[in-house]
Write a structure and sequence with these properties.
This protein is of the alpha+beta class. Helices cover 27% and strands 25% of the residues.
Length: 188
């Protein structure tokens, strides 16, 4: 669990990263950070919304970078590299809200059947990572708000991975779950 001060720092870091990106600056990763806790390696996502609609969301499910480095890199990626959207324009920056998610390490979910899988998923709590062959995708727990039906949730996760709906029922499909601590800016 991050403190309120640490969360505020990460949100400011993300916002400053976007501002610096438009100024063409390359010194995006801070040399010194005031919190040792943000040097821990954790999976993170940065989600950008505009008027309540998704505008970019990029992250790492598994811990590969210290939190503060991941937030900088994922902020840039969410703004400029999410292929579902055109790159963010500078004039949009004031209307963008930043949400950050810090992920627990995903754990493989053991289940005996598709019905058992549905029973084991904790709606509105679990983020879900689906891995099938060379294809994978994830939904943060916040996606349950938009797709509350478990079967629909898993079918959409399959589609996101470029798999046919229902692929989650295949015995070779691996499902991992994780939880997040998420927080966002409060825009006036």
């Amino acid at each position: 669990m991050l403190t309120k001060t640490e969360k505020e720092y990460l949100l400011r870091l993300s916002r400053k990263t976007l501002e610096k990106s438009f100024d063409g600056r390359e010194d995006l990763i801070p040399k010194n950070i005031p919190f040792d806790s943000l040097k821990k390696k954790m999976g993170t996502f940065v989600t950008l919304t505009k008027n309540g609609n998704l505008r970019g969301c990029i992250g790492h499910i598994f811990p590969i970078n210290p939190i503060y480095i991941d937030i900088v890199r994922n902020s840039v990626s969410a703004a400029f590299e999410d292929t579902r959207f055109k790159p963010l324009r500078k004039e949009e920056l004031d209307s963008i809200q930043i949400e950050i998610s810090i992920l627990s390490v995903p754990k493989k979910l053991d289940y005996n059947s598709p019905e058992d899988l549905l029973k084991r998923l904790n709606q509105n709590v679990d983020g879900v990572y689906l891995n099938f062959g060379r294809r994978s995708s994830t939904f943060l727990p916040q996606v349950w708000e938009k797709i509350p039906n478990k079967e629909d949730f898993l079918d959409q996760l399959c589609l996101k991975a470029w798999l046919p709906p229902g692929s989650w029922k295949n015995k070779n499909c691996e499902i991992y779950t994780y939880q997040v601590e998420n927080f966002s800016e409060k825009l006036d």
